[in-house]
Amino acid sequence: MDSSDTYWHDRALLEWQVELGVTEAILDAPVDRYALEAVKPVPKAAVADAKVEGPPPIPQAVEVDAVGIARDLAAGAGDLVALSAAMQGFEHCELKRGARSFVFSDGQPQARVMIIGEAPGREEDRAGKPFVGRAGQLLDRMLEAIELGRTREDAAQAVYITNVLPWRPPSNRTPDAAEIAMMLPFLERHIALAEPDFVVLMGNTPCQALLGRSGITRMRGDWVEVLGKPCLPMFHPAYLLRNPIAKREAWADLLALKARLRA
Predict the structure, then answer these.
(1) Are 201 and 211 in contact (CB under 8 A)?
(2) Which of 150, 194, 156, 166 is CA-nearest to residue 87?
(3) Are the C-beta atoms of residues 100 and 168 closer than 8 Å to each other?
(4) pLDDT by residue (tens digit) across 221-251?
(5) What pLDDT was estimated at residue 12?
(6) Is 160 within 8 Å of 109 (Cβ atoms)?
(7) Per the domain annotation, does 62 fall within a domain?
(8) How many domains does the chain have?
(9) Which DSSP category does 172 fall into?
């Protein structure tokens, strides 16, 4: 075989290897073919008997008992400062993620009267205090009319104010049942720690939370009991701003509260 025949023979072998998928003629490091273990074929019977597994199971979401967690946190709070910290650390109320401020309370914690509203509005969310908007200003005037106020130092003439929810609902919507339920243990603990002589429930939401019923137009003015405390449902000041004619009933309720305080 002359040199020309060797060239064409070698080229044909190279083209055949390329067709087989060879991409490298020489590797970076030599391979000892004798040292490689032979790949043992898997018996067909073993393949047939192998169990065919489906896709991995989808992990199930773990249901969180938000009310139970709230109850444990509230029970562990020994004073109002600890209760505030526990509520701020509670991560299971979605309202917290959309609110600007945590609104805990205002007024004198040792006051004989504890006023409970619904939830912060826009102005309350900005200020971090309950009842500071137009409704709050009307509430202050109502209280002054019976010689009470949130800034008074004397506990006999002071009030302590809080809400069912410490975070503002979007667009000031009414809190839903789940939100009320998960924050109720904190509210109950709040009342127990403040130890007021009288509780005033402003509007439907606190009545729903603590009395389990609503219908403030039927309930207002009738004394009931909440957690062992005398309790008076009243119109929310925001309702009075929309319905000035109801101020007559609100004034009657204020006089009833004043009479109880002086009894």
Answers:
(1) yes
(2) 166
(3) yes
(4) 999 999 999 999 999 999 999 999 999 999 9
(5) 74
(6) yes
(7) no
(8) 1
(9) G
